[in-house]
């Protein structure tokens, strides 16, 4: 369902579908049905992501403080690399007494939906939150799929209770979910991503939502039963999902995944990628005012915030695709410091600078595209695509739209081009393109491989684009690199001119995952700095 929706988005314009959709029921992988959880593991980690070797992916972090330690509740992604779906059978915990030490204890599989809630289906252990309650016990708000429900969307929020963060967890409301499309009142949203605040006056508030809808309701002091009416929250500009409520110095703050996209957006250039935005309010139900961006888009389309103060320092937990073998459905939790600017009122959250453990040393490469600035004939590029994907060095068998440049519109022209501009001339003698398609060669709808293409370089003497002297044919097969060698040119700009397939005046769109520009000799990569001034355009 999710994959269909995402590919559908390519065909049917810029739909905002980065994260969740009503899924078909899934079975958990067989190793998740065992009753005993694997033993806790002691880890020493040199930075983000916390779990980085691809053994356990960890998602949707929800930090809390208990027993003099920082804890992070996380889901677990178990999708195979080629699967674009949230395969999430269980929740896990990470805990440390000192985040700077790198010493963590990992508790795998502390809870599974159907094991905690009789009324829940296996799998889909989405973003939950554990909250230390006023009675010394722990309350776990968990979005799960309701088994026997005729709701259009069966996601529902249950609440479990335990005497320790690691469980055992038991259903605190065995009658069923506390929030669904049927309770406490009928709603038509996807009821996921709960977040809870215990206010200084002892009142308890639950917020949740996705797909642009945020809801709020008060809970009884028992942390379990709802009271009063369900309210719609407005004012959180670009809200997509993953609300996280906190209160500091009398002000309520809501962090959330936002996807207001476009070249001038402070949040994200591509609609499938979320930033973490935030708003503030003087009272739990608002009015809410948008305040800005806490975290720019990361390597996964979702990044799901959770923030907490621990021993006088605030932290932001989020997830990325940065672990070994990671991806949009194989995410891993990261933790960085979050700082406040108290010179303004209400205090501002400074943009978090994500840190990352040191990776392997870069290898020499002939590809010099990373040092160039990409451009395209269809600027501004439709917001489901991301032009930065052209030279990010990533190709996938199952890419999402922002992992490619694309041109699809309801009415496609017969030709497009994509280009690179360097600050200073480079010598090139080859290029490689990786085409993406969802329609066969020759199609006049959707996204198809090009009918033909060729490379041109900027001839500074003639002040004109000139074709390179290609030494072989221009291949059009999608799904792997099509390489063309050519007689060396020294130039500041290179472009690939793509002829769309089609019939008569009807043309398919075009999409390219990666465009490599090859120098005669391999050298160490010199990526362009994100804040470097734009090179002079050619032509
Ligand atoms: O992990 C599944 C979903 O992805 C969460 O519920 C969303 O917040 C997003 O992170």
Automatic annotation (TrEMBL):
The keyword S-adenosyl-L-methionine does not apply. InterPro entries: Glyco_hydro_43, Glyco_hydro_beta-prop_sf, Glycosyl_Hydrlase_43_Enz. Residues 22-43 are annotated as: Disordered. It holds the Pfam family Glyco_hydro_43. Residues 22-40 have a biased composition (Low complexity). Residues 1-21 form the signal peptide. This is Family 43 glycosylhydrolase.
